[in-house]
Amino acid sequence: MPMYANKSGKSGVQSYENTSDAITIHFKDGWKYVYDATNPGIATVLEMKKLAQAGIGLNSYISRVVKKNFSRRYR
After folding, report:
1. Which member of 23, 34, 55, 69 has the greatest number of CB atoms within 10 A?
2. Cβ 43 vs Cβ 35: under 8 Å
3. Closest Cα to residue 18, out of 31, 40, 41, 35?
């Protein structure tokens, strides 16, 4: 998993992994969340991938827009 750049220095995101239709976010608390074409939908996943690559705004986007709309979570 690539490390998240965390350009703001305040993100809870540690790393992420992209697949063709999903993104898995690994948070600093140890939880991994999978977001895919079903939950929250491909348009949202594409925006999350863009923010992950930019290294800024991903945690905020999840908190404001995506909220609990994930496919699954695990440790």
Report:
1. 23
2. no
3. 35
Question: Which stretches in the chain have pLDDT values below 50?
Answer: none
Indicate the pTM of the whole model. Answer: 0.96
CB burial readout 65-74, b (16+ within 10 A) else e? ebeeebeeee
Q: Is the peptide bond before 2 cis (omega within 30 degrees of 0)?
A: no
Would you state the pLDDT for residue 1? 85
Residues 27, 45, 55: CA angle, nearest 5 degrees: 50
At residue 56, what are phi and psi to the nearest 5 degrees? -155, 140
